[in-house]
């Protein structure tokens, strides 16, 4: 090979190396409020075993929840131990958290208006139980030192480095216990946290906010302002909870940012129209790495699922989270009583109507996990 061809080969190799890139993807799923009303606690109790069992409640949605690379939801109860109680000051059995993990939830956020329902003991025990179950979490902390060392929550998965921050509008007027930390929505604090998160060089920053007006289907002006505030700081995803009904989602492609103003109830004992179900936001991020210190992360897909919370009409009064999938196989086979079928139809119709009118670039996900073909439709 003459010198000219060797030179051309070396130039070509240099160009290839310069332009070489590594592309990776991660799928994220966000769920709404995980509640624990009195009726749910009663339904989960197995008198034969004298123990609480939430596995039946999540059996039909397990494959959907566990399919993405990372699934996150709002834990809107404490794990304060007995006596177990629902509204207004929640404490659910530890079995709820165990089942959430078994069902595919990877991370839980804990800053919400019920996080200090049982005082410092309840807040601290919730944190210690999640730690013992190895469920990453953020939003509440036993003390300032813990917050400094653990916030933001850095999630490393599939080659991605994600920073998660969580804030609540308040705690229902209950005082935050001495030493305990609850992240409250404060623009100065959020700015400080986001700027610090940037120093950790995350591929994306996610802010999970507990905000808005209960039972309102459209976001308030305050929610919109806070979203824009976060976006202007460089936050990529803003996920909302608290209203207990779904609110619209926006994929702002021009700035590569996404907001779900409210995902409604993932599971709860609420049965009023609009509250008996929720939405899950499905996001895919793509990262293109050009060299170790240069990478670009973008949103390449943003869709939603609907899920309905079915309360059995028999004597058990059990609860089941039913995914609303294109084939509706699970729903048709399992939800049979006339009243429940009609309530589910209304929920789905209301939800799709709201999203079709107000969503921006976010459509319903027409995807059925392969394992759903094997999901049993028998009650466990």
Structure description:
It contains 11 helices and 19 strands. The longest helix has 21 residues, at 338-358. The chain has 380 residues and is of the alpha/beta class. Helix content is 31%, strand content 31%. It starts with a helix and ends in a 16-residue tail after the last strand. The strands form 4 sheets. Strands 1, 4, 5, 6, 15, 16, 17, 18 and 19 form a 9-stranded mixed β-sheet that branches. Mean pLDDT is 91; it is low at 7-16 and 373-380.
Helix content: 25-40%
**Which residues form runs of ≥5 with pLDDT under 50?**
7-16, 373-380
Total number of beta strands: 19
Q: Structural class of the secondary structure composition?
A: alpha/beta
pLDDT averaged residue by residue: 91
Shape: globular
Number of helices: 11
Rg, Cα atoms, Å: 22 Å
Précis, in short:
It contains eleven helices and 19 strands. The protein is α/β, with parallel strands linked by helices.
Based on the model shown, name its key terms.
six-stranded mixed sheet; 31% strand; alpha/beta; nine-stranded mixed sheet; 19 strands; 380 residues; disordered C terminus
């Amino acid at each position: 090979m003459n010198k000219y061809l060797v030179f051309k080969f070396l130039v070509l190799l240099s160009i290839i190396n310069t332009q070489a890139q590594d592309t990776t993807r991660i799928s994220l799923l966000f769920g709404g409020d995980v509640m624990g009303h009195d009726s749910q606690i009663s339904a989960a109790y197995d008198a034969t075993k004298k123990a609480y069992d939430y596995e039946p409640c999540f059996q039909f949605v397990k494959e959907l929840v566990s399919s993405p690379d990372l699934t996150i939801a709002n834990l809107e109860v404490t794990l304060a131990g007995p006596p177990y109680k629902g509204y207004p000051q929640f404490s659910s059995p530890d079995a709820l958290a165990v089942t959430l993990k078994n069902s595919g939830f990877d991370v839980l956020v804990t800053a919400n208006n019920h996080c200090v329902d049982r005082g410092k003991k309840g807040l601290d025990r919730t944190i210690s139980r999640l730690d013992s179950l190895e469920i990453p979490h953020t939003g509440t902390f036993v003390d300032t030192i813990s917050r400094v060392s653990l916030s933001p929550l850095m999630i490393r998965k599939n080659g991605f480095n994600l920073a998660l921050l969580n804030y609540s509008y308040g705690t229902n007027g209950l005082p935050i216990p001495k030493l305990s930390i609850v992240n409250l929505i404060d623009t100065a604090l959020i700015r400080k946290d986001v700027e610090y998160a940037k120093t950790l060089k995350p591929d994306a920053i996610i802010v999970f906010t507990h905000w808005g007006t209960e039972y309102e289907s459209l976001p308030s002006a305050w929610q919109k302002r806070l979203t824009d505030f976060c976006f202007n700081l460089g936050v990529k995803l803003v996920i909302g909870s608290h209203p207990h009904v779904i609110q619209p989602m926006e994929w702002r492609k021009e700035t590569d940012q996404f907001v779900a103003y409210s995902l409604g109830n993932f599971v709860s004992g609420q049965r009023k129209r609009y509250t008996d179900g929720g939405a899950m936001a499905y996001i895919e991020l793509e990262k293109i790495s050009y060299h170790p210190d240069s990478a670009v992360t973008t949103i390449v897909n943003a869709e939603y699922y609907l899920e309905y919370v079915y309360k059995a009409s028999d004597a058990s009064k059990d609860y089941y989270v039913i995914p609303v999938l294109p084939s509706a196989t699970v729903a048709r086979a399992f939800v049979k009583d006339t009243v429940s079928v009609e309530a589910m139809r209304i929920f789905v119709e209301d939800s799709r109507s709201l999203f079709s009118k107000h969503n921006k670039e976010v459509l319903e996900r027409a995807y059925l996990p392969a394992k759903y073909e094997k999901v049993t439709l028998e009650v466990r």
